Structure prediction request, 797 residues.
Amino acid sequence: MVWLWWLGAVVAAAAVSGGDVTYDGRSLIIGGQRKLIFSGSIHYPRSTPDMWASLISKAKSGGLDAIDTYVFWNLHEPQPGQYDFSGRRDLLRFIKEIQSQGLYACLRIGPFIEGEWSYGGLPFWLHDVPNIEFRTDNEPFKFYMQNFTTKIVNMMKSENLYASQGGPIIVSQIENEYQNVEKAFGDKGPSYVRWAAAMAVGLNTGVPWVMCKQDDAPDPVINSCNGMMCGETFVGPNSPNKPAMWTEDWTHFYDNYGNTTKVRPAQDIAYHVALFIVKMNGSYINYYMYHGGTNFGRNASAFMLTSYYDQAPLDEYGLIRQPKWGHLKEMHAAVKLCSQTLLYGTKTNFSLGSRQQAYVYNGGNGECAAFLVNTDAASDAEVRFQDQTYRLPRKSISILPDCKTVAFNTAKVSSQYSTRTMKPVVKLDSPERWQEFDEAIPSFSDTLLRSDSLLEQMNTTKDASDYLWYTASYQQSEELQSVITVDSRGHVLRAFVNEVFFGSRHGIYRNQSFTLETDAPFKSGVNNISLLSIMIGLPDSGPHMEGRASGLRNASIGDKDLTYYSWGYQVGLVGEKLQLYTEEGSSKAEWSKFNHSSQQLKWYKSNFDAPEGADPVALNLGSMGKGAAWINGESIGRYWISFPQPNGSPSQIWYHIPRSFLKPTNNLLILFEEEAANPLGVSVDTVSVTRVCGHVSDSSPPPVISYQMKRGRRPKVRLRCPKSKNISNILFASFGSPLGDCSSYAAGRCHSTSSFNVVERACLGRRMCSVPWSYRSFGGDPCPGVSKDLLIEAECQ
Prediction:
């Protein structure tokens, strides 16, 4: 019964309660009680309002106590003093949804956020404020920053959303990773930090403020850590009266076009969380991201994928990603069993070996909790602790809530694995399903904006479009091929002479500048040069962002310098001006039949019916090149299939279509394609988990709930299909010594011949099942003296 009592205490501790939020050197204090908080970042504009309840519910089921979000200034104040909190921008609705599900909220106002978000969240109109310098002791910037911060705080106060008013918000953030750029501003950097802290505290929210990656955060603002290894890299709170907080525990490495995707394993995340708790007395950990979502529209910063943190515990579509979600859930439960002892007990630590440590917590009523740490990344270790022997896998931490029995080990995954599948439902493979519209290539005579120099792109477009045409008339005495050279500060260039495409180049994430140098076909007489400079998002970080430049810098034909030639400019595309991506704009345009041409710069139109069911939907653009996509007038983001990863595969193929964007029938799909591509390969797919897999051994800790009710219970493989799906087929089952793991497996020399029959009886036709690791279940020991595992993979339909 004691363990059931503990479980009830853990659940009760997660409930939201009002009152001022304070802190001491151990933790945040809410309602007079110290709190150990697991939080997860979910960004409201990177999903849709109809997804919010499900995302928050899954986060809560995963053991989180709080939801963290940035506030996106450029979305909310697109023009000075003009505010927008509608649709995906409805911040109040999002915070209230968090509150309705009994979780805390952490509001990272910034208002500079970085976040792989265009311009770091700053509205572009700030660029044109006279004498402005971003993020420094500059009066114009501070004026607008304070205005917006005050606007958000007052909105929250008006709805009683701060914990001091009975609401869910327990902490806010001002600025973001400013220490990375502070030195670039000289003496104005530290004075800006002091001003920002004082301004925020002066808003009297009744909850603490934090500054992440700001070791000198002024009192009472808390300095916090961002990164993957804050148990090893954090310098610690800058005052003994401040708690150790980890505001960004990166669950993945953000992806950009052309990079190699690196997956951070669940075991590594769990290890570093537990290490932060014991080494730094950490009591607040926020996963960045818990759900990444989608960079709809033009909101991704330079070279960032439209998909954001798809490898988070909740994937881009909101599906649970296993084993990451389940392994962290198990860890949260194990830690919460120790929470009162961790927060109120006394800690001692001592060596168990050359690279092994014990951290022991003792409570006033005899409670004892221990964390056994093996920092050796190369070897397992056997250690003696309180007259018992424990085997610690390499680079792992075992959690013993009673100082005796292991409830969880960070390296041993007992949670199931899952496989996500994309299923084509609507194939748009018939020419009759498509129409096209040629984007006009402007000449110098078509333009109204003129200059005797090459203009900087961002200052010219004002972020109204990714596209800026540079045009010129060039006189040549004879027909010949001439070398044209163009230097660009980024990001993509497509070049035409007399409307004939002759070359293209692009930069990369870390080196956005490039030079196009190629032969171009010039005729005798007047030639029209049309250079399309394309941006893939604005910068999102670095000092002096207001001075950053893009677009063309130099141009020449042969040895003739055209940099200070007479140039004409067109901001944006004709198709954008006509709003071809909307129902109204599309219906007014004159579309042509699909003709299989290889011409650059085309708009494509098709229609499709929504897939049945509730599975998420994605657009498969694997046959396209580079461009943008819209569904019923809603932008689902930029795509860039032709920019491969180093292994040659596209950086991203599938693009999320939220269900709320769709009608039952006749949905309008518009693609703007910059390159020669094949829309006949496009399909509308559904996204689902179709395979689940579990793997345990005789040394695996039992699930924490089993530990709570009956210590020493044998581990089980637990399989669960998504809603509306059941286990239809057992793909693999082996009790013995299977080779590999859930990613790649085969039967080993030791194998119980009853494995398939036992698992089929337990699982077939059910949405969920559990199969215990036990000799009795499989009719005896198939090979005495051999350590045995149980590995099962099943299909869900």
About this structure: The radius of gyration is 29 Å.
